[in-house]
Structures are given as structure tokens and as C-alpha cells.
Amino acid sequence: MCACGCSAADGNRLGQPHLPPGHDLEVSDGVQFVLNSFDRHSIVAISDLPGCEELHQFLQTLVQSPGFRSKVNVVVVDFGNPIFQSVVDRYVVDGELMPESVLRHVWDDTTESPSLTWDSPVYAQFFDAIRAANLAVPKERRIHVVLGDAPILWRKVKTKEQWLAFRGQAREQALAEKVDEILNRHERALVVAARSHLLHVPGDSTNARALIEKTHPGQVFFVIPESRFGAGDVYKEIEAREAKIPTDSIALLQDTWLGSVPVADGESSECLQQAADAVLQDPTGAVFALWQAGTHNGAGVVNVPNSFCWNELATPDTTKAGDFYTGLFGWGKNVQQMGPMTYTSFMNGDRPAGGMYTPTPEMGEIPPNWLVYFAVDDTDAKLKKANELGAKTIVPAMDIPGTGRFAVIQDPQGATFGIIKLDNPPA
Q1: DSSP label of 296
Q2: Measured distance CA(75)–CA(331) in Å, rounded
Q3: 3-state secondary structure 366-407
Q4: 351 or 175: whose pLDDT is higher?
């Protein structure tokens, strides 16, 4: 989670002509940057990336850092239903032991429950981290967590229309009111909430940040975690330029090359320095998500045409990545030489769980990423059909002896994936 320090000359040498001009990013340690920001702003806000392990590890480190409690009285989150505020107070502030079945209602029974937005272990870990830090100090010095979602009582919601009434503007208003209460008490708070609540959008006076700044102008400092900014493949150019930066760092955006990049695709998108104040990034590896099955068990059809069949990690450091994933998931490794490339198959017991390789120089600059593959019955025909529908061919159809015929495609919205006709599909 950092911002980078490669020069403009580095970017041109890497073949990145599309990035805008601007000053290089000046990188600071992320935790210390946030703590120092409280000397100038009452509210420091960091946008959530739902379920992102890397971001939430940074947040846990932040709230448990020695200087955090001396700067901050309150943490406000949008991933909690204020109906359960007393539950969080008893657990986080009073230190009361609480069954997970009770505590989970805080982030499970929210306005976003139907989409499983916060159905991830990172949210329980976030509350645990603050509770652990609190238990080390007297009660009067403990940090309070304020739940900032709209107060929805699901047993009274009978229709979709009733549910939607608690979303949209109701959520913006609920979060803004919680922050206003803190500012009116002349306290300081860390806010962790969805990006849409926190962006400064010119002409929009309805999101939570705009509502807060109507009565407390200049009090909110917004740090946006790096994600896929800009249009098309711009994010790949950004990641390549930031490949050598230290982890867990933050950089100001104003007047930098990254600050001039649009937040999203589309001519109407504001640039980053208009929407946010600083950027938090993690260039050390590929982004991935964890899944703990609940009522939905995941993919029900795999390894047959038109379904998921493989995922593959491209990384510049297979040793470091291999140690990470085998340590995290308990996988084994099967290493093979495939021509000039060393290819690793991750093994979950005796079944392959995914692949890993280091891109060769001939492949050009490929940032660390996980690529998903879908099985097809005819790679060439499916590639032709994709192009007719507006896709772009990234890697043309070619054969992998003993494995199958594959191609890599970018869809019209910019998402990249692979297709493959397997020679010997798994049973």
C-alpha cells in the first residue's frame, strides 16, 4: 500500500506513453503519514476496498500503532449497522467477550447484506484489532467505534422498495450525521467507508463528504487506496511505473503525474487530485480475494466449456509469491520447465489449484496479476466471436503441448481473461 517514486524517464523507458505529465510522487510511511495528517485535519478518511486483505492489514496496523490513540478519539465505519451500536461498545470498549454469532450481526445485517459486500473475515479482524489495542489501556482512554450505515431493521423490510429506501441518499446522510456529531464535539476521527461517500465530486452536494463540508469545510482529508484508475490499460502502466516503491506508503496527489489520471473511465470522470488528497497503494503483488462459503458455495460448474477452469499468477518474484501462497493456503508446488519458462503448479493435495510464472522479456511489461481462464470447445471460434463483440486480442490463439490451445482476451470494458480448449479436462 504505497505510492511510487520512479521518474518520468523511467516511465518512458518502460514504454508508457499514456501517463500524464507531473511531478514524481513523494512517498511517506503510510501509518506516520496518517498520524501527521491529524495535526492539520480533524477527519482523515480512507476508502474501503471490500474484503481486501492488504488494505485491512494496513488499517489494523494503523489502529494498533502506538501513536494512534494519542491522535484519535473515534473510528467511524460504514460497514456496521448502528442498531447494533451497543453490541460494538460492549465488545470493543468494555472488552466483553461475545459469541461470533452475536457480533456478526454488526456487519452482516446492514443495507449491503443482500450483495454480501462485507461477508469477509477482514471486518471481524478489524473490530478485533481495535478491541485488542483497547484492552491494553484504561477504559477512559479507549477508542470508540461508531457504526455509520443507515439503521435498517431487516425484520420490518418486506419489499425491495423498502430496502432501497435505506440505500443511496439515506446512507450518505447517516454517515455524514455521525461525522458531524464528532466534529461538533471537537474530536478527531478516522473514517473508513466506501469511496463513493468520500470522493470530492465537483457539482455534487449529496454525498457524505459534501454534506459534512457544508458545515465543516476543510476538515476532511481523504486517502484513496490505489485500484484500477483510468481507462482501459492505463492501470497497467501505473502499476509498472510503481513497481519499485516500498510497501505501506502514502503520497500526496496534487500536481503529480498520478494526480492527473482520471479516477475512472469516461470523459466526465474527474482526475484523482480533484477527487482525493493522497493515495495508498500496494505494488508488491497481485490483488486477490478470499471466499468463505455461506449460503452460496461458489462456482457450481467448472472445467467444462463456457465455465471457469484455471487461474494463473504472473509475478516477477516466484520465490516470494510461492512462499506467500503456500504459507497462506497450505498448497504444495510442482515446478516444471516449459521451454524457456519455469512454470509452477500450486497443488491442493493431489489436485492443481492454479499456476504461477515470471513473464519473459518478450512478453513486455506485465504487472503482477491473477488471470482467470474459461474452458471452451473451440478456441479460435470463440476468439473470433469475442472480437466480433468488441473484444481485443491480447495473446492470439496458440498451442501448449499436452495442455491445450489458449488465447488471452480483453473485453470491451477492459477486463482481461483467458480461454482454453483443454486437451485433457479434469474429471
Answers
A1: -
A2: 37
A3: CCCEEEEEEECCCHHHHHHHHHHCCCEEEEEEEEECCCEEEE
A4: 175
Domains of the chain are 8-281 (3.40.50), 307-422 (3.10.180.10)
Q: What is the spatial distance between Cα 146 and Cα 76, in angstroms, rounded to a whole number? A: 5
- How high is the mean pLDDT of the chain? 86
3-state secondary structure of 106: helix
As given in the structure block, the three cell numbers for residue 98 are 461475545
pTM above threshold 0.85: no
pLDDT of residue 306 exceeding 60, the answer is yes
CA 26 to each of CA 47, 225, 244, 264: distance values in angstroms, whole numbers, following the listed order: 21, 16, 13, 23
Q: What is the bridge-based pairing of β-strands 278-281 and 249-252?
A: antiparallel
Question: Residue 2: pLDDT band by 50, 70, 90 thresholds?
Answer: very low
- Quickly tell me which residue has 484489532 as its cell: 129
- For the chain, percent helix, then strand, then coil, each to nearest 5? 35, 25, 45
More confident residue, 299 or 192: 192
Report yes or no: 14 and 162 within 8 Å, Cβ to Cβ: no
Sheet holding 43-47, edge to edge: 27-29, 249-252, 278-281, 220-225, 43-47, 189-193, 74-77, 144-147
More confident site: 380 or 245: 380
Residue indicated by cell numbers 474484503: 51
C-alpha span between 402 and 326 (Å, rounded): 26
Tell me the average pLDDT across 346-362.
Answer: 88
